[in-house]
């Protein structure tokens, strides 16, 4: 019988209840402590889902900035194109260290 793999955060009451239930039921399982940095999904090439999402989000932001000529806010800005508030997009631009000014028209 293949054991059940369980992922849980340390100290979680729900996780402990599930683990106790499996012990009492004699169900074989493997318990894996889930910390913040534990990858939830790893592809066969070693790429973590978190990294893939991070890269995809950054590429979408850069594409929206390019299409909006570096403008973040306003009806034709990158935030409107992405469907997020301008303040949220500004935070993400800062977090990803994207130079929004390089997308401005006339910037060489």
What does this molecule look like?
With 108 residues, the chain is mainly alpha-helical. The protein folds into two domains: 30 residues, no CATH class; 55 residues. 43% of the residues lie in helices and 9% in strands. The chain contains four helices and two strands, in the order βαβααα. It has a two-stranded parallel sheet with strand order 1-2. Helix 1 links the parallel strand 1 and strand 2. The longest helix is centred in the middle third of the chain and has 19 residues. The chain starts with a strand and ends in a 13-residue tail after the last helix. The model has no long low-confidence stretch (mean pLDDT 80).
* Strand order, largest beta sheet: 1-2
Largest sheet features? 2 strands, parallel
Head-to-tail CA distance between termini: 64 Å
Number of domains: 2
Helix content: 40-55%
Low-confidence stretches: none
Gyration radius over CA = 22 Å
Order of helices and strands: EHEHHH
Note the beta-strand portion: 5-15%
Mean pLDDT: 80
Structural class, from helix and strand content? Answer: mainly alpha
Shape: elongated
The number of distinct β-strands equals 2
How many helix segments? 4
């Amino acid at each position: 019988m293949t054991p059940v793999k369980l992922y849980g955060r340390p100290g979680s009451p729900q996780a402990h209840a599930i683990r106790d239930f499996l012990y009492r039921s004699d169900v074989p399982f493997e318990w894996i402590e889930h910390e913040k940095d534990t990858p939830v999904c790893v592809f066969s090439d070693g790429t973590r889902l978190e990294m893939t999402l991070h890269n995809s989000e950054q590429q979408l932001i850069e594409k929206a900035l390019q299409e909006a000529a570096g403008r973040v806010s306003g009806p034709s800005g990158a935030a409107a194109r992405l469907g997020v508030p301008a303040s949220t997009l500004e935070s993400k631009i800062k977090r990803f260290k994207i130079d929004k000014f390089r997308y401005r028209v006339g910037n060489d």
